[in-house]
Amino acid sequence: MSMIDTWVSVTGGHAYPARLDPSHCWNGWVSPAFTLDAVRQLADHTDEDAEAYGHECVDQVHIIEGTQPVVLFVRWQYFTESPKDSVNVVVPDADGLYWIGGCEWTWYEVKDGPIFYTRKDAFKAWRRVLLRSGQRIGEILRTRAPHATSCLVDPSLGRIVRVEDVGAWRTFDDDGLDVFDTASLSEADDVLQKALDHGRDPVSLEDAGWRPARDSGRPELHRIHFAPAAKDPAGDAPVDEARDAATAARRKLLMETVPYLAADVREARPDAIGVVVDPDADQPFVTFVAETGARREGTIPGEQARKLRERMQDMFVYRPTREDLTACGWVPVTAEHVPGTYALIFPAE
Prior knowledge:
five-stranded antiparallel β-sheet, four-stranded antiparallel β-sheet
């Protein structure tokens, strides 16, 4: 067997450091082995899932402590019919590793495992900005329309195009905006636009709870549902806190992705010491920085180009601001033929 150290996941919710043989697969799924520390994490997470979804539909991992801890792999859904077959006892191998779920669970390898949770945290932080912004938009709109329950927004324009309420049967031409003055509508639009500054991909917005308004006949619109009206509006504080947390998570993602970006760049161009990017472009990568300090352009193999492109997209998915880039070590490029770009010189190997 040719074993590698990597990370794996089975649900996408958590990732675990593991050792596996990439050539040993079951229907495309890998068969990993874990250290006892990783098994402890896995056991905690299966306990959480069992509490959330019911023991009868969740396999659980339990650790029996002792001089040599052993692991119980329990399939509760089979316990009534065949108690003996519902439990496996897993003992450590010669290397002290526990082989769990191989040829049974849909384990898959997670690339860049050490930043798995950094990416998840960045998404959660961005999602929280959308949630808090939606709540604040509802508070603002309800100052003029107390019974408003939701609104339709156009993410591409950053505008509220319709306000909905329970008791109003509106025609398509009646957008419900006639009760608003310019100031209140502008305030709500401003909250919306700031929420969209760091991502407005339709699929990502839906993942974050802003659903496509398919019943509107306009596929570009999304619906924001307001939370029940509170006696005392929360004001701007929750939104500001969410934005600050998202900024911290966005910058952490930028910083922790640099070693992986450097490895991808050096694989494509061994003489490269950095990159130049346009943070506002759909494809951020502009060019390499060579050992001489001069920029180098040219073609690179297709697979390496794809890998580099995907790395950049993951790194810039939340549209970091220029302040974010500067805080994370990127330097503005002053050359006139590449306005608005930033350069990063990688740490020495």
